[in-house]
Amino acid sequence: MEWEIVIGLEVHVQLSTQSKLFSGASTRFGAAPNTQACAIDLAMPGTLPVPNEEAFRYAVMFGLAMNAEIGKRSVFERKNYFYPDLPKGYQTTQLAEPIVGAGEIEIHLEDGSSKSVRLHHAHLEEDAGKSLHDAVFSEGHGMSGIDLNRAGTPLIEIVSEPDMRSAAEAVAYLRKIHSIVTYLGISDGDMSQGSMRCDANVSVRLKGEEKLGTRTELKNINSFRFVERAIKVEAQRQIDLIEDGGRVVQETRLYDADKNETRSMRSKEVANDYRYFPCPDLLPVELTDEYVDTIRQQLPELPDAKSTRFASEYGLSAYDADQLTQERAVAEFFEAATQHCGQPKLVANWMMGELAALLNREEIAIAQSPISAEQLAGLIERIVDNTISSKIAKQVFEAMANGEGDADAVIEKRGLKQVSDTGAIEKMVDDVIANSAAQVENYRSADEAKRPKMMGYFVGQIMKASKGQANPQVINKILKEKLDALL
Amino acid sequence: MHQLTIADIIKGLRERQFSSTEITRHLLERIQQQDERYNSFITVTADEALQQAAAADERLAAGDAPAMCGVPIAHKDIFCTSGVRTSCGSRMLDNFVPPYDAAVVESFERAGAVSLGKTNMDEFAMGSSNETSFYGPVKNPWDTNRVPGGSSGGSAAAVAAQLCPGATATDTGGSIRQPAALTNTTGIKPTYGRVSRWGMIAFASSLDQGGPIARSAEDAALMLSVMADSDPRDSTNLQRPSDDFTRDLDQSIQGLRIGVPREYLAEGLNSDTDERVQEALREYEKLGAELVEISLPHTQLAVPAYYVIAPAEASANLSRFDGVRYGHRCENPADLRDLYMRSRGEGFGEEVQRRILVGTYALSAGYYDAYYNKAQQVRRLIKQDFVKAFEQVDVIMGPTAPSPAFKLGEKRADPVSMYLEDIYTIAVNLAGLPAMSLPCGTVDGLPVGLQIIGNYLDEARMLNVAHQYQQATDWHKASAV
């Protein structure tokens, strides 16, 4: 039996507004518990919400970037449930009339193919606070603490259609959302701090089947890697279950990254009736066409447009252009380095090769890269002007990564400058020819067509003797003259 | 001195006939001596009041006295007062001392008024008799065996008993007008959004509106001029700057078109009450007004629609009282569920619990369309009725309440008959219109109220219409004490 996985994602993105969605309290991350919660966030009696205009602007920017309809009239509703980190006893969110309607985006897969994913809608809502269970308090163990700093922080919840068919597609979609929100500057997109959180709705069905299978919802997956793993393991669980004659139960499940398994989180008996109704403390928000158009005109260049431009302006392959534009910071790094050295292809190769490997190894973002765009450009300039070979350049790169300074300083300090002095190279060529009687004999007796290939051995020996510093072009020229003289 | 109106007090203070400290002290003594009979105050802030009075006297002497400088008033205990317990008539908030003032409280402080304390009320403003208060029922100064109406029964009784010349109040379905009618006072519920709801503990957010209860239309106008203001902290506020509602008081009402809804004089109305209202209408004719019979065809639907919408909103508004951050918390909760169940079970009285249950039910999956949505549709129809009526008339008049004050306990066991107390007042809240009640005579020695409903933002004209009647009649001057 061939199975098909069907995935829809709900992504919560924390908007990087200065203050909360309905109060003036700061949204800064990491402050001492309950120091950024005002009377409104604490739901003190008689307090009232006032919508944050900036959050609306951000949501509209997002909607436009997703090619989505903008809700000219959006309505906040109350989603009622009791929980200690939900001070009002309801969450203020949007349901029937969200700020962002249906839309569509392209995602790019590793095999170079693209696919369109439909957006169901995106809505503005406030975040809850945090419950810290089993925290140790002076009153004793077994107590829970409530931190309301996060309560009221603006979120957009982005709901996709069930259009993804593999964990890889889900990750590509999530990366695209990440890329768009960071390009727009409306969120820091930091998954480790919870600025971006993902719930995945996963179901399976036999290939060719029209009807969707029963889905489960995987809650709060907090990294790209875990999204991929969680979906894979959950889909496999469902397939195994059905193949063993069982049935998938619609439920919320939690992904345990340590055990790489999902497990049931809530049972059906406590299924909530949230009793949504329009919030009577807030009026419907009406946006004018002028307002939306002004925001449209101020949108920055988005990843897809940038990718197309990179391909045409810098002559990059579609794949390279795409890779380099996924993150705004990466694209900016590329353009800065290219501007310095005028070598877009080399910059692309170095960024996607050595630099990507370095960042990956160190688990850091490009913003924390130990080598700046200017420094990388400096290194590339030394390759282009033959001061060093590409091979030596890798050594220089590692030294730069270790904080030994820019390319010129490393080359100078370590004496890595390429040897192009014909006298010195001639001597090395003579030595190698003298010590390689057998290879010389082979060369002489070989067909002319095969000889260039046979030169490789000699070049390798000479490079070895020069510790990689001899200019390969000079070696080639001298070597060929000397070997041909022996014919 | 306790018989003076606010207008009298303002004049007397400025003419140095007495000081704010003198009148404040006098009223505080009166409250201390007499309020045991009425139970109209939950908290009396004597020390703070005397400090405010002393400060007011200094400003009066210095000649920089704002509008109501030195005038003693009281606040309904639904308005948050910084540093002073604000209970909302509930055990739930018996220990609650807000760190902030309601916008209305701020406005009176800016205007230089002195606050004598916090008046009693039905718990969370849910009631029409002031019998649901955790602090015990308020007694009607006209007959202490009878209710003063509710939910602003404490404010109305305190004004009627001459413990203060005016008090703030709130009106969600009639909570200013009905007690005003039952205590021979004058109260106005402004257009929804006129008075900021910031710091006013919410019952039903789309219906709640603050307003004054006083002993004359002129005093109500003076108080409303202080209360009505723009406030960016309240998103539903109309953001209209403060106004002088006394400016049109002396205008003639010659040619005024008064709409008389035939539905308001239907069965259920006490015939004596009807008679007093008819007499008042004849008085208006004498003053040059013209009576026009109108129809508000959806009147009968107002009470059922209200008792879906108001409890639905209340069920969510009161969720914040969960025993976690402030207010009543049960002893030794076993777990989270126990904490919620017992804190709320102990903190809320029967009527509040009933409305939370009704509201929760009305919003539940499967019932939402039949109740909440339907009620919202009715609400639009009711509003259209009024919009149409105001194409023909300037104001609408009728009874405020179906009968005079009833006996304590008389309707407590029968919530539906209690809900029908608001049959003439509720539609106004659903439509968001301004309306007021003013005394128009008595039945067996008990006051009857005339209701005036105005068009949106037409408070100045309504107060003018009421004032002209009070210039021609003395009903509002009749005193319980």
TrEMBL record, chain A:
Domain of life: Bacteria
Ranges in coiled-coil conformation: none
EC number(s) given by UniProt: 6.3.5.-
TM segment ranges: none
InterPro entries reported in the protein's UniProt record: Asn/Gln-tRNA_amidoTrfase_suB/E, Asn/Gln-tRNA_Trfase_suB/E_cat, Asn/Gln_amidotransferase, Asn/Gln_tRNA_amidoTrase-B-like, GatB, GatB_C_1, GatB_Yqey_C_2, Gln-tRNA_amidoTrfase_suB_CS
Keywords, alphabetical: ATP-binding, Ligase, Nucleotide-binding, Protein biosynthesis
Keyword Nucleotide-binding included in the entry's annotation: yes
UniProt catalytic activity: L-aspartyl-tRNA(Asn) + L-glutamine + ATP + H2O = L-asparaginyl-tRNA(Asn) + L-glutamate + ADP + phosphate + 2 H(+); L-glutamyl-tRNA(Gln) + L-glutamine + ATP + H2O = L-glutaminyl-tRNA(Gln) + L-glutamate + ADP + phosphate + H(+)
Enzyme class: ligase
Domain Asn/Gln amidotransferase: 332-483
Family stated for the protein in its record: Belongs to the GatB/GatE family. GatB subfamily.
Record function comment: Allows the formation of correctly charged Asn-tRNA(Asn) or Gln-tRNA(Gln) through the transamidation of misacylated Asp-tRNA(Asn) or Glu-tRNA(Gln) in organisms which lack either or both of asparaginyl-tRNA or glutaminyl-tRNA synthetases. The reaction takes place in the presence of glutamine and ATP through an activated phospho-Asp-tRNA(Asn) or phospho-Glu-tRNA(Gln).
Self-association and partners: Heterotrimer of A, B and C subunits.
Protein name per the record: Aspartyl/glutamyl-tRNA(Asn/Gln) amidotransferase subunit B
TrEMBL record, chain B:
Keywords for this protein: ATP-binding, Ligase, Nucleotide-binding, Protein biosynthesis
Catalysed conversion reaction: L-glutamyl-tRNA(Gln) + L-glutamine + ATP + H2O = L-glutaminyl-tRNA(Gln) + L-glutamate + ADP + phosphate + H(+)
Domain annotation Amidase: ranges: 22-463
Catalytic activity, EC: 6.3.5.7
Function (record text): Allows the formation of correctly charged Gln-tRNA(Gln) through the transamidation of misacylated Glu-tRNA(Gln) in organisms which lack glutaminyl-tRNA synthetase. The reaction takes place in the presence of glutamine and ATP through an activated gamma-phospho-Glu-tRNA(Gln).
Stated family: Belongs to the amidase family. GatA subfamily.
The protein's name: Glutamyl-tRNA(Gln) amidotransferase subunit A
Organism: Microbulbifer flavimaris
